[in-house]
Amino acid sequence: MNRTVSLFLLATLALGTSLVILSKHWFPIWLGLELSTLSLLPILNLNTWSRGNEATLKYFLVQAFSAAILLNGAILNLWITGNWEISSTQDPLVHSTITLALIIKLGLAPCHFWFPDVLSGLTFNNGIIIACWQKIAPLFLLVNLNSFVLSELIITCSVLSALIGAWGGLNQVSIRKILAYSSIGHMGWISCTTFFSEETAILLFAFYLLNNVLIFCICNTKDLYSLSSLSKVNSNPTSALLFSLALLSLGGLPPLGGFINKLIPLSIFTLNNSLLIIPLFITASLMSLYFYLRVTFNTSLTLFPQNSLGLLTSRSLTNSTQLFIISALAPLTIWGLLLIPAFYLFI
Predict the structure, then answer these.
(1) b/e 41-72 (16+ beta carbons within 10 angstroms → b)
(2) What is the mean pLDDT of residues 123-151?
(3) Closest alpha carbon to 294 in 220, 227, 214, 212
(4) Residue range 10-37: average pLDDT?
(5) Cβ(62)–Cβ(113) under 8 Å?
(6) NADH:quinone oxidoreductase/Mrp antiporter transmembrane domain spans which residues (predicted)?
(7) d(Cα 105, Cα 178) in Å, to the nearest integer?
(8) Distance CA 129, CA 182 (A)
(9) What angle do the packed helices 278-300 and 237-251 form, to 10 degrees?
(10) What is the pLDDT of residues 40-66, one digit of tens each?
(11) pTM confidence score
């Protein structure tokens, strides 16, 4: 694709997300969601293999379906209240309809089935957009609606997402599917925290973005598509260290920053007397930590148990953009891993 066309599509993608964030009316919000989806499709369709085209088509159908549900909810709200304002969204039926659309867009359970299939069929560069950037707009809407939406629905879907994200990642050997289920689990933590504390949820989401972008960039530069290829990370000690720290921090292993990012939501649930969901989130965290440790262990191996010697040869890094992103995120990641726990002590 032409460089000018690519920049135009990326600018349109950013414009659509900005329109959702800055708007207070449902119609511009729906327009921004559709604009970001349509501008992303040509970027995803650059894949020349059939699996990538299938993933692009699945993504389009899911996003179009969820946007249609959201528009129907906004029109129903217009019919009841007579305006497009977000603040006037108080009818239970409108709540349920719009919340369902946001759950589909975020990939929360039980509407999570599309996310691992789509992410496993795309490149890591496109995966960054799907797993990170495209979560910003629906999560922002969820934050704005947290005083109106049905708490039982959000909390139930969040707990299911944390459990399914942890359970689904246990039996995977594909790195992209592991990252997909990891994203489902983390969005469960973030969306549940959103209902109780918006500021904490934003910090959790920022930490999630920081670690995920770094992991996706390292996987892209090293061609890490399965557990058997993780030995390629050892060719660069810095990448291996950052990759392991980011994974273990996402898993919540103490004393890394991810442990505090799970401890703070649990304390918030306790303060709000939501004691029944705490054992479920702890169970999900322990299960997810297992496959994070599994990936980290395979990273330290010189030779995968069922691997051939041919897989030991690593490709030299030729993508200067990815190297620049990794080098730029390295100090930020170290800050997030080491200083975020200290930051939480003062809030």
Answers:
(1) eebbbebeeeebeebbebbbebbeebbebbbe
(2) 85
(3) 227
(4) 92
(5) no
(6) 23-287
(7) 19
(8) 15
(9) 160
(10) 999 888 766 778 888 999 999 999 999
(11) 0.84
